[in-house]
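Before a computer can learn anything about folding, someone has to put a protein's shape into writing. The outcome of that step, for a single protein, is printed below:
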Amino acid sequence: MHTVKTIVLALILVILSVMGLRAEEISLEPLTQSDKIQVEEISLEQFANEFNTLFQAKDWKKIGQLFINNPNTAKQFQQMLARASEGTGKQVEQTRALAGLVARLRQGLSGSENPMFARLIKEGKKAYSIAEYRIAIRKWERGLNLARQTKSQFYIGIFIGSLGVVYHDIGQYQKALIYQQQALEIYREIDSKYEVENTLNNIGNIYETLAQYQKALNYYQQALELNRKIGNKLGEGDDLDRIGVTYLRIDQYQKALTNFQQALEIYREIGHKLGEGDNLGNIGVTYLNIGQYQKALTNFQQALEIHREIGNKLGEGDNLDYIGTMYLKCELRAK
């Protein structure tokens, strides 16, 4: 019992640090052959303390090595976090976020025997970020071929899904759908729930681009149900927001408001300021569309304050623009 208490205490700093960090933002350095020396696995308490220290130092390479050298202890660590994630409350949400991060690290490192995967993912992302789509496609197709040769299902899903995103961006929507559906099948087969949720939203985005809003809503709703099932509050809020935006686009304002307000409650509960600010803006836009200008103004001003507080210039500009549009509509209506 004392050991469990010690582990929980060792996790407190990690749990407080993990909020706001997403697993896809972690860039693990490729491991060399000399890094892969097998050692006797350390205890769960030692693992938790070492993970805490390395996490604070942001030493992703050593974190990767810790997981590779102690696969069974890493699994126990994840299971302990999963048990501690049951229930409600801010600390539980933080623990759940950490459990998700650990799950992604364990799964991602399952293919770390081939550092080419990490390199091709990174090179493809770099090309994609500067709109060099042909280069991104070439890198990720090479990664896909390699993943298929090594029968690494997780990485097959990663590369197929990434290609689907690129094809969406360059307007090849049917090809994008085919790739995302294939990725979805793979992630469901290996029971990778976080990737299933992400892919469901990617498919919804494609259908929304095609103005097939009912199909988009269907996929967003599936993602929402999955996030509720696994207790991912941030994902739940984001899905409610997506659903609200889709209803707003088809002029179903009451349904849009219902989803936006539910998302707002979640963002406030977990302290997600950016989501709160964006959602208040969405609520304001909805009220603006139905002519309730005072309610629109109240929400725009609240959103503006939050975006200024967190230094989000884009959000600040958007809400100033919304307020200007609202006053213009009021003037036109008065005439």
